[in-house]
Amino acid sequence: MTRSTVTRTMTSANNLAPAPAVATSGDRAPRKKSRNSAAMIGGRKGIVWRSAIAVVVAVIMAFPLYWMVVVAFSPRGEVFEPTLRFWPSAWTTENFQRVFELYPVATWFGNSVVIGLFVTFFTVIVNLLAGYAFARLRFRGRNVLFLLTLATMMIPIQAIMVAQFRLVSGLGIYGSYWGVILPGAAAAFGIFLARQFFIGIPDEIVEAAKIDGAGQIRIFLQVVLPLSKPLIAVLILLTLMGSWNDFAWPLIALSDNQLFTLPIGLLYLQNQTAPNYNATMALALISVIPVVVLFLSFQRYFVQGFARSGIR
Amino acid sequence: MTALTARGRGSAALSPRPRAARRAARLRESLVGWGFLAPNLALMAIFLFLPILWALQLSFQDSQGFGSPEWVGLKNYARLIGDPVFWQSFGNTIVFTILTVPITMVGGLGLAVLMNSVLPARGVFRTLIVLPMVISGVASGMIATIIFYQSNGIINKVLSAVGLNPVAWQSEGWPALISVVIVAIWLRIGFNMIIYLAGLQGIEPELYEAARIDGAGRWQQLRSITVPLVGPSTFFLLIMNVIASFQVFDLIFVMTGGGPGNSTSVLVTYAYRNGFQIREQGYGAAIGIVILVITLLFTLVQWRTSRMRDQVG
């Protein structure tokens, strides 16, 4: 039963424990091995061709982000003038000034931060507890519950949003931070990451603690958690990013302009009667920078997390 | 709690009836297990299972806005069957999935092979390919709106500059759908590459060596070693990509809003439109139930297949 696909493939995607360098930017660790297998696939002969392809791909992948920056710093309307240009005629910060003047951008940013931190706090705790139960505790109904939890990952919010909207209204938390935070914490993907990690912890460590007379709760808090820092890092980063970028549910649950998160604020800008695309890109850039910085600083954790949880 | 457990353990060792003691220990472990799961179960019950039941109930009602709901039996579902926009959204969902999934997966494998080979500045390339994954769907959609802008967007300007006709990305159905497909691939290909890269690094280099000694060319090595050996990754990605495509919302909502006409409307955006824009919440809930059923069917097929694979492999 527990051998369901997602877990199976996640195992095959490799084991979490000692942070294997799957595809991190750091070329340090994996270099030797990859170089070996690389030599098998093509050797050094095609290196020019491969580099050329890589450059083309990289340019295509980077272009939209580059263009966001260009539009954000261009004089208003310039990008839609008939002249073809890949560079602003003059770099300007007027779009940023405008967007801060006209909209409560700082408030939106703060909302995103507050909601992100709360969602992350609750989600990570729930995920750790549930993942540990599924991985290392034996109890009646475990497999069925695990299957059920798996299935919830597949449910798109749009399937139940009407009912969820009524539920949140009924609970009296519609239009408040909690209306976004609590449903957000019901996300299950981290449970699988956690379960996978906890399964990988050697039995001897847990058994030794048991012989010393520790109960499950103490084992979890004092033995397992201190060993789980990489897992916790991955969970925090992925949950934070997911919440920061979340759109569909906040769109429904937030009606007050002062409570908007950045993605909803972005939509609000675009929905103005005469949308100012330069201002929109300025706000988009503001909303994107924190996740990009987080990603570049902790790339290894992100990549590991992606590889195992399969979000997106 | 710890003290309790410890004492229980002590008495179990001394107990004249070990079976009863063992049963007590198992019960205790069960309680601990359920305790660890309780927060998760509570959240799932309140914010997922309850809404599912409620959605089911709503789908049998005629409720526009907040007026008192009226029980209409299967009327909403009957209306679905006769609703051309529903079928168009259904068809678009399928077309979108068929267009995005294979390209993303083949492209992801290609990039993984490339990134697994000798390459200068490989880390930089990898980072650039993975980076779009962390960009929100809303921001991506807005950037794309500007890039694909019909009158003097950068793509159409470049097309004109090289002597081609500009494309009606926003006023014609197919180009609009294609533009969303392109952005979805851009967002997801990095994820596919990561998974394949992990799969590739598990392949023994000796296999390629042996194949080369047998005179296999590069293409043959790819076909008879690489592709079969990344099978598990392929299976995993297939599921993940199909689900992601089936649920594509942010991009379409921001880029096209389902238009022009209904040519990029998909099931999830159509459900949203009925639930929150037209405010026919009963009908919206019925569409949601259909989405749910399709998702569950797909999940079931996937479990079946994986069990079969377990037995075969």
UniProtKB/TrEMBL annotation, chain A:
Q: Which UniProt keywords apply?
A: Cell membrane, Membrane, Transmembrane, Transmembrane helix, Transport
Domain of life assignment: Bacteria
Location of the ABC transmembrane type-1 domain: 109-298
Predominant localisation class: membrane
Q: How does it sit in the membrane?
A: Multi-pass membrane protein
Q: Which GO terms describe its cellular component?
A: plasma membrane
Spell out the family assignment given in the record's similarity comment: Belongs to the binding-protein-dependent transport system permease family.
The record's annotation in PROSITE patterns points to: ABC_TM1
Any keyword Cell membrane?
yes
Q: Name one GO biological process term.
A: transmembrane transport
Transmembrane stretches in the record are 47-69, 108-132, 144-165, 177-198, 219-241, 247-269, 281-302
What's the protein here called? Carbohydrate ABC transporter membrane protein 2, CUT1 family
InterPro entries reported for this sequence: MetI-like (IPR000515), MetI-like_sf (IPR035906)
Q: Where is this region: Disordered?
A: 18-37
Q: Where, per UniProt, does this protein localize? A: Cell membrane
Q: Which Pfam families match?
A: BPD_transp_1 (PF00528)
TrEMBL record, chain B:
Q: What InterPro entries does the record tag this protein with?
A: ABC_transporter_permease, MetI-like, MetI-like_sf
Where exactly are the transmembrane stretches of this chain? 31-56, 94-115, 127-149, 174-198, 227-249, 282-301
Query: Where is it chiefly localized?
Result: membrane
- Where's the ABC transmembrane type-1 domain? 90-302
Record's subcellular location:
Cell membrane
Q: Keywords for this entry?
A: Cell membrane, Membrane, Transmembrane, Transmembrane helix, Transport
Q: What is the top-level taxon of the source organism?
A: Bacteria
Annotated coiled-coil segments of the chain: none
Keyword Cell membrane listed: yes
Q: In Gene Ontology terms, what is a biological process of this protein?
A: transmembrane transport
CDD domains per the record? TM_PBP2
Q: Does the keyword Membrane apply?
A: yes
Any one Pfam family match given in the protein's UniProt record, by short name: BPD_transp_1
Membrane-related topology note = Multi-pass membrane protein
**Any one cellular-component term (Gene Ontology):** plasma membrane
Q: Which family does it belong to?
A: Belongs to the binding-protein-dependent transport system permease family.
UniProt protein name: Carbohydrate ABC transporter membrane protein 1, CUT1 family
- Native organism is Salinibacterium xinjiangense
